[in-house]
Amino acid sequence: MDDIDEQRIKNHLREDSIWSRFFILDTVDSTMDYARSIDDLSHGDVIIAGAQTNGHGRVDHSWMSPKGNVYMSMAIKCGGDQQKALIPISALAVFDVVEKYTSVVPEIKWPNDVLLDEKKISGVCMQKVDDIVIVGIGLNVNITPALDTATCINDFIACELDLNLVIGDLLDIFEDYLEDDPDRVISLWKDNVRTIGRKVIVTSNETYEGTVNGLTDEGYLMLELPDGRIVEIMAGDVSEI
Ligand code: BTN
């Protein structure tokens, strides 16, 4: 398996790339925690690990992180309009990369899980530190973690992939979406969120069961409860039932 290598990633990036400072680690507890520990964490910093011993995600999920997949956190400083599109940007960047390498069209489970053939291939989480948002992406590339609900790119193709190429693509595509009109990106993301119309249980600060009616302009989930009331949910964990 090829090592993750800064120069090989950079060779693959567009010339005017915003991704300037790389922290590449063999193994770390979590690239999110490592990012938070960098004193002068700045826009364009990228932290990548070969494996994680304490990978974690939204709502206290753990993220299994064996060697062979992408574990990456990126530091982004952006204004209000761009910030509201960060979830769609991350989901779409992963979506495009997965489609490019597998030639299978993935689906997005609200807000930003990417599924292939009904199984989760990627998860994204975000944390804000002062004026910087740290975006964490886990993408299963060469190894499927030991979970019935997970898959990886390699399950759909015949060969092992060079992670440097996959990371380069992810960073380039993420940057393209970041430069795009946030409203256009949100609308593209909404078109690919499969959760609309489904019966779900959503765990946020409370647990709700209902049918997803649609998404608001901001991308919040509009959930119709059994008594007909609609609640708007900004963030949470969705199980489809
Ligand atoms: C989720 O599905 O809840 C999100 C999972 C996010 C996992 C990635 S892997 C790289 C980064 N480091 C972490 O500890 N978490 C994110």
Written overview of the protein:
This protein has two domains: 6-191, Bira Bifunctional Protein, Domain 2 (BirA Bifunctional Protein, domain 2); 199-240, SH3 type barrels, CATH 2.30.30. The protein starts with 5 loop residues before the first helix and ends with a strand. The protein contains six helices and twelve strands. 26% of the residues lie in helices and 31% in strands. The strands form two sheets. Strands 1-2-3-7-6-5-4 form a seven-stranded mixed β-sheet. It is of the alpha+beta class and 241 residues long. The chain is globular. It has helices at residues 6-12, 31-36, 80-84, 86-102, 163-179, 182-192, and strands spanning 21-28, 45-52, 70-76, 107-109, 113-116, 119-129, 132-139, 199-203, 207-215, 221-224, 230-233, 237-240. The model has no long low-confidence stretch (mean pLDDT 94). Biotin binds next to helix 2, strand 3, strand 6 and strand 7. Residues 30-32, 52, 55-58, 61, 63, 71-73, 113, 123-125, 136-138 line the site of biotin (BTN).
Bound ligands, each once: biotin
Main pleated sheet: 7 strands, mixed
Tell me, briefly, the overall form: globular
In order across it, which strands form the biggest sheet?
1-2-3-7-6-5-4
Main attributes of the structure:
seven-stranded mixed β-sheet, 2 domains, about 240 residues, BirA Bifunctional Protein, domain 2, binds biotin, alpha+beta, SH3 type barrels
